[in-house]
Amino acid sequence: MFWSFTSYTMGSRWRDMLMDYGNVLGDKSSRSSSAYFSVNGDLMDKRNEDVQLRQTLEVFFRPLFQKFVYGGEKIACHDLRSILREPEYRDRLPPDKVHELADLCDFNQGRAVKYEEFTKIVLGKHDDNSSFGGSDTGLHGADRDMGRTKGVLRVVCTNTTQQLMVDDYLFEYKCLPPPFFMILVTIAQIIVYIVFTSQDGWYTSALDSIPNANHTNVLMYYPNRRHEAWRYVSYWLLHQGFIDLIFNVIIQLVLGVPLEIMFKWWRLAIVWILGVLAGSLGQSLTDHYVGLVGAGGGAYAIMAAHCLTLWQERQHLNDDPTESRTKKILCGLPLRVTLLVIILIPQIALAVYRRWFLDPINIRIGIAAHIGGILAGITLGPAYLKDIKRYPWQEGSGLFSLFTCLIFIGGTVIFNIIYKGYPAEVYN
């Protein structure tokens, strides 16, 4: 009798505690106690509460994950922690889930969490064995996959982009399909140089000779043949001396191929082609009596785009003390900048020499292609060669960059038509 009375008393107290659970948590909670514990065991109410909570997540939280661009619908743990401190968002979530998310964010600083992962935690469907702020394969799967790619490649990525995006970049760094665009461009340049050199009796110079350099050459840009519109693009196939060819080949293979593997061929092709076009149009706009050859416009466009991305991400790059010092030095920013300067200084010096100091008997070549390529790379780089998870047209900056380039192209075309200070056209 005593045990029955005791059990009845404890059961009554336990039911009272459960029914007062909502009051203990406070009225600020967006979900009442009946959403978690129902005396009648009504599962329909629980299901309705889940539907309402899912709608709340879609309306109020999903835009936040789309706003913080870390590659797809992701948000950094420290950003999510800051959001959870705001009553506007905190009060829309169950209090126990707020505490769980806060703890997970505190223990996973420096990582990012996906929206899908976030919803599973809030709805109580999160697997304790899965990772928080990891990749799609889970923590152990990611570590296993990363084990195959750790080394120089991982150090290159961590010294190129934000630490939050390193895992995504490594998974995207594939050679299928192969980087055919930059390789085909390079092969075409070498073949054209060899063919035209053979037509000149294999005579060539390291610095100043252009193979088959005359007005009948259908590739070179000439101010007096501006009506042949293809010359504004085809000039990249010719080079003034094999030294100029070697420099451009180095930039295209050493820098262009890895960027093409990472960002896919069409992104790099847009930047490269618009760099070539900006170079020739800039030449026609600023240097009316001088021709143009070389792939400096395209090469400098991808170089400028890459350098701008490195500069923008400089505060988020890898500072992991466990990385090998040798790898960090070989793949770090200082050495990259040094190598780029080593390539840039002699190439720009040669361009200046060939434009202003070359013997008048030879054909002088303009340098506007380099400047036009740099401007094109700076304009298009942040939209096309920065985030692999978003298409350029998904952001206003990408559309604005492309629109700016098109405005420049249209303006220079109109200038070429109406300006009267160009040399007389040669039609025969």
Automatic annotation (TrEMBL):
PANTHER family: PROTEIN RHOMBOID-RELATED (PTHR45840:SF2), RHOMBOID-RELATED PROTEIN (PTHR45840)
UniProt-listed Gene3D superfamilies: Rhomboid-like
Cellular compartments per GO CC: membrane
Pfam families assigned to the protein according to its UniProt record, in alphabetical order: Rhomboid (PF01694)
Transmembrane spans: 179-196, 236-258, 265-283, 289-312, 333-353, 365-385, 397-419
Name of the protein: Rhomboid-related protein 2-like isoform X1
Keyword Transmembrane: yes
Annotated localization: Membrane
Family: Belongs to the peptidase S54 family.
Residues of the Peptidase S54 rhomboid domain: 227-385
Keyword vocabulary terms for this entry: Membrane, Transmembrane, Transmembrane helix
Top-level taxon of origin: Eukaryota
Membrane topology listed for this record: Multi-pass membrane protein
A single GO molecular function term of this UniProt record: serine-type endopeptidase activity
